[in-house]
Amino acid sequence: MVLHKLLFCFVTLEEVNSQIALEYGQAMTVRVLKADSEVMPIVVVQNATVLDLKKAICRFMELKQQREGGVKHISWRYVWRTYHLVFQGEKLEDDKMRLKDYGIRNRDEVTFMKRLRKK
């Protein structure tokens, strides 16, 4: 039982470095709202691109699954084909564009929104 609890407390070096970067103002937290109302606090560097945010979301979910169990594989290709990331009504469609160019700042909220199917 003690070992089981220790596994849930495991923190990666990557997470520690992210927290340090936040403290020094080198990173920001983007709050990503999922359809089930869960908010994922995603840490990215200040000049992060949309692609950096997507990769950080993947990593966040990967770590969460390792800690909690549950679904073993997520098809991110399917996720990004099916959902947009949206900030204040604007779709974050250009993976190379910086988040700050969309106006995204520390603690701002980005939403997962289902794409409308084209007929």
Automatic annotation (TrEMBL):
<feature type="domain" description="Ubiquitin-like">
    <location>
        <begin position="26"/>
        <end position="119"/>
    </location>
</feature>
<dbReference type="GO" id="GO:0005689">
    <property type="term" value="C:U12-type spliceosomal complex"/>
</dbReference>
<dbReference type="InterPro" id="IPR000626">
    <property type="entry name" value="Ubiquitin-like_dom"/>
</dbReference>
<protein>
    <submittedName>
        <fullName>Small nuclear ribonucleoprotein 25</fullName>
    </submittedName>
</protein>
<feature type="signal peptide">
    <location>
        <begin position="1"/>
        <end position="18"/>
    </location>
</feature>
<keyword id="KW-0732">Signal</keyword>
<dbReference type="InterPro" id="IPR039690">
    <property type="entry name" value="SNRNP25"/>
</dbReference>
<dbReference type="Pfam" id="PF18036">
    <property type="entry name" value="Ubiquitin_4"/>
</dbReference>
<dbReference type="InterPro" id="IPR040610">
    <property type="entry name" value="SNRNP25_ubiquitin"/>
</dbReference>
<dbReference type="GO" id="GO:0000398">
    <property type="term" value="P:mRNA splicing, via spliceosome"/>
</dbReference>
<dbReference type="InterPro" id="IPR029071">
    <property type="entry name" value="Ubiquitin-like_domsf"/>
</dbReference>
